Amino acid sequence: METSAGSWLLAVLLLARYFKAGGTLQLSLQPVSAQIHSIVWKYDKNLLAEWVKDSILLTYYSKFKGRTTLNTDTGVLEIRNMTAADNGVYSLEINNQVQSQVYQIVEIEAVPQPEVKVTLLCNSTSESCKLVCEGDVNKAGPVEYFWKKDDGEWEQSGKKIEILNNEETRHVKTFSCRMKNLVSESDSEPIDNPLYQEKTPDCGLCVTLLVLCEIGLMWCFNNNSFS
């Protein structure tokens, strides 16, 4: 009976981890019930760090020497001064047992300053408009988007939002967007709301003020006439 590599691959838990150039990467492992007596970390099938309890030997290999620390009690691996050359797959053996937890390590860049753009055919008479939070995020890894009305609170949403031409939106002067990834965040400059309309004065209030002014003028006139 064949035990295919496919069965082993199904058991692998591939986890993506991201780092910024020059930063520190920390990799942990799933809880181990038995006492740890040997640890082997590998980088793309090459030895990275190795420790055996009985020999009290802790060895770091190749480019990882001098910038790597292995906690022999927990198995946690820390690598400093990460670069794009460190991208790859990192795997672990505990007590000579290959662990199912495997890391895909990828360098990411800081997000750029985004720019809010309005889709075409949008003006004050449109039923709705779409706003897009633009910026080159090809090397930024997973990116989250947030939007803000005027000086309000940031609200998480997508890269694109639709604004409706209703009473609430028409009184918002500006929209801003924010990009955020695991190592940075950046805000756009506010953009004028294409659906914005000035608030019109309350006619009832104007009439009331005019009446009060007339009463005041009449009172002054009458008092001056009898003085």
UniProtKB/TrEMBL annotation:
GO terms for cellular component: membrane. It comes from the Eukaryota. The keyword Amino-acid biosynthesis does not apply. Residues 1-21 form the signal peptide. The keyword Glycoprotein applies. InterPro entries: CD2/SLAM_rcpt (IPR015631), Ig-like_dom_sf (IPR036179), Ig-like_fold (IPR013783). This is Ig-like domain-containing protein.
